[in-house]
Write a sequence for this structure.
């Protein structure tokens, strides 16, 4: 069926087969009237409410039993599916590494491993051609300081993109004997591929604006940078107001959606540097043709044009329940053909559900429900 990329009990990144054991669930159809025929399956991360352990699961879009794909998933690091939807990479919660899964019932393949310098790998992202993985790695000697690395998808020696994270310590030299560099050091936060040879990532640089002053305050500068795999220094694309919490390039690579922690989501035109605000939204994504956006705002799922206009509230349009007011949506995703959406919503009573619906918000169908936590939905073109 395919492969999954994930992080396992030993630090690193792994491959894993998409065929796993069947897990019992309380899945049930709910309010399926007017739902157009659906195909494929929806993968997601499920967190056990008791032990807090997360796993990768998949359920057919028509509903049924969920099937286990992989365990010990880092719930804070989203899994990344290969461009052909047949492999998944993820970070593990115990070993803090990245793994992948591929090919029938094959075993997971560890892609990264802990080293003397780096101790935690996360945020794996496939290159557009599926041959490489980019990921963030935390430096062993620097708390919460991470840098961008790229590794062959089949495993091998990773290489750092951008400067050595150890340069970051210059920002904290107590006697101000050194001053931070003007280009980004190692504190990377989010990343995405723009092409097979270019990445975009966000970083925060703590600058020492006045070396004559021996103690803080420091100034934190947040920015988006483009980095080519040829080893040239990263180039500043835009300064942003807060650390980024999402980077989503448009299908044609012309635009970049970026969220800001505690702030608004914006669309950036990469060629011109022009940007505009979409609002306080979460989990934004592009339609396959790049013409519309899908996102969650204030507990509801919306679509809009790529400039933020023509906003439509989908989860209040039609529901199998008397009202959708009781549900709080947290995440949403398009189907591959753009004809449907899947979204995760909680009822405020400890239950979280996975729904599918038509792209206009009609025909809600609940295909999975749990007392645990659900996150990171991804619609696959094949059935489980």
């Amino acid at each position: 069926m395919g492969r999954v990329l994930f992080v396992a009990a030993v630090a690193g990144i792994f491959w894993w087969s998409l065929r796993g054991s069947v897990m019992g669930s309380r899945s049930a159809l709910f309010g399926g009237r007017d739902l157009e025929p659906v195909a494929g399956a929806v993968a997601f991360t499920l967190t056990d409410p008791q032990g807090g352990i997360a796993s990768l699961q998949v359920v057919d879009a028509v509903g049924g039993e969920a099937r286990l794909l992989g365990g010990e998933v880092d719930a804070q690091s989203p899994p990344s599916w290969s461009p052909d939807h047949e492999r998944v990479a993820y970070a593990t919660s115990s070993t803090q590494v990245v793994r992948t899964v591929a090919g029938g019932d094959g075993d997971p393949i560890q892609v990264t491993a802990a080293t003397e310098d780096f101790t935690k790998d996360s945020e794996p992202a496939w290159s557009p051609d599926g041959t490489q993985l980019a990921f963030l790695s935390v430096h062993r000697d620097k708390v919460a300081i991470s840098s961008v690395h790229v590794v062959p998808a089949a495993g091998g020696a990773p290489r750092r993109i951008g400067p050595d994270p150890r340069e970051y310590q210059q920002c904290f030299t107590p006697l101000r004997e050194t001053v931070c560099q003007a280009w980004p050091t190692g504190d990377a936060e989010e990343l995405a591929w723009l092409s097979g040879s270019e990445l975009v990532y966000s970083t925060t640089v703590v600058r020492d604006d006045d070396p004559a002053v021996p103690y803080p305050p420091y100034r934190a500068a947040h920015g988006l940078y483009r980095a080519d795999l040829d080893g040239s220094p990263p180039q500043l694309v835009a300064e942003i107001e807060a650390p980024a919490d999402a980077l989503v390039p448009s299908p044609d690579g012309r635009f970049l959606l970026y969220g800001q922690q505690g702030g608004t989501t914006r669309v950036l035109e990469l060629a011109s540097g022009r940007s505009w605000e979409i609002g306080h939204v979460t989990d934004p994504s592009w339609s396959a043709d790049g013409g519309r956006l899908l996102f969650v705002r204030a507990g509801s799922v919306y679509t809009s044009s790529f400039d933020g206009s023509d906003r439509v509230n989908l989860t209040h349009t039609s529901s199998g329940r008397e009202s959708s007011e009781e549900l709080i949506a947290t995440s949403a995703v398009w189907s591959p053909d753009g004809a449907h959406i899947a979204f995760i919503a909680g009822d405020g009573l400890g239950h979280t559900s996975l729904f599918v619906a038509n792209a206009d918000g009609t025909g809600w169908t609940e295909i999975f429900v749990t007392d645990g936590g659900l996150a990171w939905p991804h619609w696959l073109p094949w059935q489980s």
